[in-house]
Amino acid sequence: MKMQKGNDKISTYQVGVLIYLTILGVGILTLPASMAKEVENDGWILSIIAGLICIGIVYIMCKVGEKFPQNGFVGTLKLLFGNILGTILAIPTFLYFLLFAALEVRIFGETAKIFLLNRTPLEQIMLPLIVLSVILARLGIEPIVRFFETVTPVIVFVLFILFLIGLNGADFSNLKPFLSHDILSFAKGIKSALFAYAGFEALLIIFPFIKEPNKAFKASLGAMVFLIIAYVITIIECYSVFGAQLTTKLMYPTMSMIKASDIPGAFIERVEGILEALWVLFVYTTIVSLLYSLSVVAKDVIGHSEAKHILVIFLPFIYLASLIGESIIDMMKYGDLLTTTIGLYTIFILPILMYILSRFKKAGGSR
């Protein structure tokens, strides 16, 4: 990969913001239910364990990126595995970003149709989101992170207020008993918990654009810690309001929790509308980051000079992929298949292989 211009570089803080808003997407609405299905009241503990494991993978990604900061993802694969094999190994990651973005678009469309636009055809909900995401993703890494940086204070403030609202009517005795499951139960449920943090794999792509690559792990660690805290608070509040058993029966327990919160003297009639509006922003930032990652990987795989042209070519494919399945239940099954195949490969297997081989390579590329 060629050296990036100074105005294409992002700061350490912006790296953290990018990782935070890439991960914080669809999952925050469904996470309490998926964790309760796995280990009931211990769902928040499972979320912490998964977060710590993901921090370990982030560390591995950062070590590889620090060693070869200007090679880029595909360039590093070619350096470690050879040109042909490196290119082949990058193709599943390209497909992962494309299908993950399509999945996010479809789940957004289905959810928006339930809560916001119940009379609007699904296609008319999804297509504008795809187009707007492509427009921002085509502008490059710096405009993307500047937008993310602008909306972050609003997101953090509103989330804080919503967390306070969620405390109203909470009964923390519903969290008992603690640690009622054995290690085998946690091991079976860890897959669902791990992929709740999907999105940090954008680190594989952005190292050539980071001003100080040696500080990327520090920024990413901060983002991951904030996410773990946000997830744990969300799960605990849902369990304390509904109990783990009822939470498993709710499709969007976080939204239901906000709806159930009664605020004395509140001047906003539908508080959940705030979360719905904020959630649109969550999904948008996630899709933009995924599409940008897709464009960079595709550009380097096919040897094209401009990443922004790639998105225009693949826009119809993203739209068609988002139409797969008849209902949101089908999309959930599709999502499970995605995460257990090329998702597992991209997020865990490939970074570990890259890290192992990078130990036998000098920074310049020689053995």
UniProtKB/TrEMBL annotation:
InterPro entries assigned to the protein according to its UniProt record, in alphabetical order: Spore_GerAB
Transmembrane domains' residue ranges: 12-31, 43-62, 83-105, 125-141, 153-170, 190-209, 221-242, 277-298, 310-331, 337-357
Record has Transmembrane as a keyword: yes
Similarity remark: Belongs to the amino acid-polyamine-organocation (APC) superfamily. Spore germination protein (SGP) (TC 2.A.3.9) family.
One cellular component term from this protein's GO annotations in UniProt: membrane
Protein name (Swiss-Prot/TrEMBL): Spore germination protein GerKB
Primary location: membrane
Protein localization: Membrane
Keyword Phosphoprotein applies: no
NCBIfam families hit by this protein: 2A0309
Pfam families: Spore_permease (PF03845)
Membrane topology recorded in Swiss-Prot or TrEMBL: Multi-pass membrane protein
Species in which this protein is naturally found: Thermobrachium celere DSM 8682
Key words of the record: Germination, Membrane, Transmembrane, Transmembrane helix, Transport
GO terms under biological process: spore germination
